[in-house]
């Protein structure tokens, strides 16, 4: 038994050595495995034509489309199509079903070739490209992670993108200073859904760095200067910036062409709009942003939101804000736990990105 096992180990060791040499020479192991798979399937089609159909050659094409990079994929597609032509010529009999299978395989190969040419700009395989997009999306969301806050403060935010995708032009950036001051900005980048997602990614990283390095009063001017330097065709964004002293409840609010924030006075039991003025980011050099000051007392709440919640065609935005505040009274009823999610569910539609951040100072 030992001798028999050693005989079987010889080809296994040879295959392992060849695999390692291929890996060291720069040939991806995935490509080697797919070439072997293609050869095996072609052999099975020739040996058992009544059992193994031609259409099985679609399998290595689909797998290769997900695993191979744009440099290897076109050559592998050509290899599969050559194997298909060889197998078809060897079989000789071309019935209608076989002709349809050949046409389908060639069509799939052509589509994959076109896809690989588009991927060549990025230089990564399909599955790796998707992983990169997921990582980029997670980084956008991470920028909006709310830092740990004192027990009396509760800050939640909710984001819904146009069409239900996971990429949006709305994002939140938050930062807490060592002095106990919370800075948070809600941004709406021009465009919708995936179109604005790449710009939102770049801006969220840049705005996060600016917020942590600059005084509150300098954030929006610096963000405006950054956008102007990008020289994008659609390089503008609106933003509302809240700087909150969590010890006293005093706040400063600045807006850059953004819908105004709203404050809920727990004592009076009503909402009021906090008007603040400032030009849209990325349009005017040396822009100035007016500061609105106030104090959040225990029980008070504030909402910062994007225009997807209040703006619709044919309706003035002021009417949309009134509707939102009416829904806030009806939906929240003084209970702000998970308030951002509940309010977004009650407002807006799938045609625009929607973002809302709710700040609440608990009573006790």
TrEMBL record:
UniProt keyword list: Hydrolase, Membrane, Transmembrane, Transmembrane helix
Keyword Metal-binding: no
Family matches, as InterPro entries: Bact_Sigma-Reg, PPM-type-like_dom_sf, PPM-type_phosphatase-like_dom
One Pfam family this sequence matches: SpoIIE
TM region(s), chain numbering: 31-61, 73-92, 98-117
PPM-type phosphatase domain location: 141-361
Protein name: Serine/threonine-protein phosphatase
UniProt source species: Nocardioides malaquae
